Amino acid sequence: MLHPRIEPLTLGMYDTWISSEALHHWTKSLLSEVGKKLPFILVINLQVPAKPNYSLVLYYAADRPIKKDSLLSKFVDGSDVFRDSRFKLIPSIVEGYWMVKRAVGTKACLLGKVVTCKYFRQDNFLEIDVDIGSSSVARSVIGLVLGYVTSLVVDLAILIEAKEETELPEYILGTVRLNRLKPESAVPLEV
């Protein structure tokens, strides 16, 4: 049984883009009629530093409105400082080269504490742009991952860290499995 405060999001789709510059505030050009009908959409734009730049954009949707007093509501409508202290990602290399598995690990990471995250809130959207290149360690790890990406199966779990007893238990907002991505299939985009 789900915890009463749990509001899991469903991965609707993901895109891979390639561009000369990093994509920022992607949802401003995405507001379709279909998107406006959903109660809430969380867009996570993982900006991968490379020449050219890649973006892996994940679109998670809620099938019902967010409860006002929930941790998700506090996160969505909170300050960037609050969001940075709570936005967590758990990676797992399911299949792949042992050195990549070791470099990536499986520990939860508060993304806002290690890389630059920019948040854009409008209407029923929250977009989080995650600049992986803003950390030399993250840039180094992603450089290794890119060298093997066509042979990797990667699971990512996204959650909001609970810090108060009333916010427990923590729960996963959404997940995605990336199966042997092909960088050449990324859609070119002019920024």
- H/E order of the elements? EHEEHHEHEHEEHEEE
Radius of gyration in whole Å, from Cα?
16 Å
Percent of residues in beta strands = 35-45%
Total number of β-strand segments? 10
pLDDT averaged over residues:
88
Range of helix content: 10-25%
What is the terminal-to-terminal distance?
45 Å
Number of distinct helices: 6
Q: What is the count of distinct domains?
A: 1
Instruction: Assign an overall shape.
Output: globular
Protein name: Protein ENHANCED DISEASE RESISTANCE 2 C-terminal domain-containing protein
Organism: Crotalaria pallida
Domain Protein ENHANCED DISEASE RESISTANCE 2 C-terminal: 32-181
Pfam families: EDR2_C (PF07059)
Key attributes of the depicted protein:
single chain; 191 residues; alpha+beta; 6-stranded mixed sheet; 4-stranded antiparallel sheet; 21% helix; globular; disordered N terminus; Protein ENHANCED DISEASE RESISTANCE 2 C-terminal domain-containing protein; EDR2_C
Give a verbal description of the structure.
The chain has one domain (10-188). Mean pLDDT is 88; it is low at 1-6. It has 6 helices and 10 strands, in the order E-H-E-E-H-H-E-H-E-H-E-E-H-E-E-E. A 6-stranded mixed beta sheet has the order 6-7-2-3-1-10. It has helices at 33-37, 71-77, 80-84, 98-104, 111-114, 136-148; strands at residues 10-19, 40-48, 53-62, 87-95, 109-110, 116-122, 125-131, 153-160, 172-179, 187-188. With 191 residues, the chain is an alpha+beta fold. Residues 32-181 form the Protein ENHANCED DISEASE RESISTANCE 2 C-terminal domain. This is Protein ENHANCED DISEASE RESISTANCE 2 C-terminal domain-containing protein. It comes from Crotalaria pallida (Smooth rattlebox).
